[in-house]
Design a protein that fits this description.
The chain is an alpha+beta fold. The longest helix has 15 residues. The relative contact order is 0.18. It has a six-stranded antiparallel sheet with strand order 1-2-6-5-4-3.
């Protein structure tokens, strides 16, 4: 099968630096790379966000872990303790299969939690991740 190649973007390694592709269960091309950094490299990159990357909130989000989705590129990018994984779907159906799998695997988790010790309240704020199913 002919796979898409990683995009040439300032916030990603050069297209030929990625290892792969291999296929995931949805049939999407997965490219791998290792980089000593932390997730904030992408969180605060204006070009990354302008290109359509959105954070996919999970209960594991931390400086060493993050997932982002790009609905225009039909792509999912994850960072885990230096390991970068870029999934490129060849079509809308395979992209949506991957998003459904992610929704199922990660379950519903708050985007953030606010604690007010004076009032004795805990407020959980949830992100509507179903929006990723709209392409």
């Amino acid at each position: 099968m002919q796979h898409r190649t990683p995009p040439a973007k300032s916030y990603f390694p050069a297209p030929d630096a990625w290892k792969g592709p291999r296929e995931n269960d949805s049939g999407n091309a997965i490219y791998d790379y290792f980089m000593h950094t932390e997730r904030y490299r992408w969180d605060f990159d204006q070009n990354f966000r302008a290109d359509g990357w959105e954070q996919f909130d999970t209960d594991q989000d931390a400086h060493c872990f993050g997932i982002w989705v790009n609905r225009k590129m039909l792509a999912v990018f994850s960072y885990t303790e230096g390991d970068l994984h870029l999934s490129l779907a060849p079509n809308k159906e395979q992209f949506l299969d991957e998003i459904r799998s992610m929704l199922n695997f990660h379950g519903q988790s708050p985007a953030f939690v606010a604690i007010d010790p004076n009032a004795g309240t805990i407020t959980e704020v949830y992100d509507d991740r179903e929006r990723f199913l709209t392409v």
